[in-house]
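Notes, p. 3: input format for complexes.
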Amino acid sequence: MSDDQLPPSSPHPASGRTAARTAAVIPAAGRGVRLGPGVPKALRTLGGTPMLIHAVRAMADSRAVSLVVVVAPPDGAAEVKSLLDAHALPDRTDFLVVPGGGTRQESVRLGLDALPPGYDIVLVHDAARPLVPVDTVDAVIGAVRDGAPAVVPALPLADTVKQVEPAAGPGEPESVVATPDRSLLRAVQTPQGFDRATLERAHRTVKDNVTDDASMVEQLGRAVVTVPGHEEAFKVTRPLDLILAEAVLARRRLNDGF
Ligand code: C5P
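Output follows (258 residues plus cytidine-5'-monophosphate):
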């Protein structure tokens, strides 16, 4: 095992070592075109608060997370900085804002480039998943601390999934070519958690366009494991998701008594 393959250190009182410090990178530079016209998706409000602020709070709620790096729309870093200044966030967490890129992958890489030394565990969390519960965040961090180089929260699928061939033209039917065994499929969420050296190597090495960071680690041939995801960690993508997110928030507020 080479140095950069070693798992991050775990809390080990007997050896006097401290727990690996954890930072979260939040890519928030997407336009969110599937939600319809308007401001960038991360700046849309839920319960009167921008989605991005919910996502930042979801990471900062974990006592293990001591730095949050927000990757803003390329021309929106100043706006995002003032948004963070204007909302109450925990004192024990530091925040950085950097401008993002043209793809999610590039935005995450720009966030990683801004990470100071001393953080050995990195979470990557979509701003578009504002309601992930802290227990899910802590489960991901715990599995990385236990030695997994890459961890994804995952849920079984409700729907049967078909693999299709691309249609011959717009409006033409697609041919179904396979029905993968649903019991072996998982829908994965964020935050995804990584040993920092492994994630940085993945971003240096893998050039294909991918939709999540764990698949880059898979391409390196390193192990990726799952922890249970949560139905409230869903991604706000389409207009119906906004309605669901508002309903989840309203229920939380009722349960919290405010
Ligand atoms: O487009 P998608 O829903 O997959 O985006 C997932 C996350 O990646 C969102 O939080 C979005 O803001 C972010 N993103 C980004 N930079 C891009 C495109 C997407 O930070 N160029």
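The two ends are 52 Å apart (CA to CA).
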